[in-house]
Amino acid sequence: MKAIVVGGGIGGLCAALALQQAGIETTVYEAAPNFKGLGAGVGLAANAMQGLARLGVMDDVVARGKQLDALVIFDEHGREISNMDTRPLSSKYGINNFVIHRADLHEVLLSHLQPDSVVLGKRCEEVKQRGDQVQIMFADGSHATADLLIAADGISSVVRQQLVPESIPRYAGYTCWRAVVDNPGVEINNMISAETWAPEGRVGIAPLQGDKIYWYACINAPQRDEKMRRMTPEKLARHFEMVHPPVEAVLASTSQDQLIWNDIADLKPLKHFVYGRVVLLGDAAHATTPNMGQGACQAIEDAVVLAQCLQQENVLAEGLKKYEKRRKARTAKVIEMSRRLGEVAHWRHPLLGKLRNTLFRAMPKFVTQRQMEDLYKVDF
Fold this sequence. Notes:
The protein is of the alpha/beta class. It contains 14 helices and 19 strands. It is globular, with a radius of gyration of 21 Å.
């Protein structure tokens, strides 16, 4: 069998790797002309690391990133709202609360693929199914044919838009900036992933290897807001100047070319991930807001489960049906939980914010731990 993956992100590369290891000839077609310096930081929970272990790449990934001890939420004054020690979960479910530069993760995945199995500069424009074949037309006029197509081309997937035109990204109400910077000489806890919930917005800071810092900042705003598009690191730093140190200093140390910006959106859960011989995977199937850090994690799960299902069933249609059944409910739950958490984290009214913080401080730790454990129990 021959498979084609449209999209060379984390999900697409993991899918290609899993299928190649299952003995399926697989080629990845990516629209971008190169992968240079891809993205900012990415957090990987235990479920993703379990998936990477099954793909045989976990050790190489671990060598490039950093495992942290806790997830801590602060208020604007630097007082703890929540402090979740992730070490007990790591001892039970494997490496957890792991951060890495997205480009480093990408390099590791690429290095494990078969030579010449990734083709750059190929933007998919149309998909046609004829009998037992799928044909993909590219913007440059060329085409490719395979027995199976995995659409891993992100939240704005061209393939999904063709198959399910009513499925469009839904704006979450806030916009986000991200960057990876050298530590500008500030003191941070190098063993925690920190997030601050302030009236001005939300800021996350996590340490990476090599004394680098991955940060993100989210602000409530209208969709596609011109003022937000023109935001610079200096303006962002001023916006958060009343928030506890070292938030302002970290944002101010960022250069304009390091800054990545986009509105945050997700997808309403789909009824199907499989359409004949076309399979939706990762953000193309179930894009989620980043509030639970599960976007990349669920894409990695998809890749492993898809290859397992195809190996377990002799008939392709049965394997794809099994993949859809195993992935649909789980990813829908993540989408809705993550969206709700984002809504609560972005409450701007001072009284609501104080009430939220009080409730989170009073919440027994076992409640949060149980929610995380549900994520880490994967049916691999």
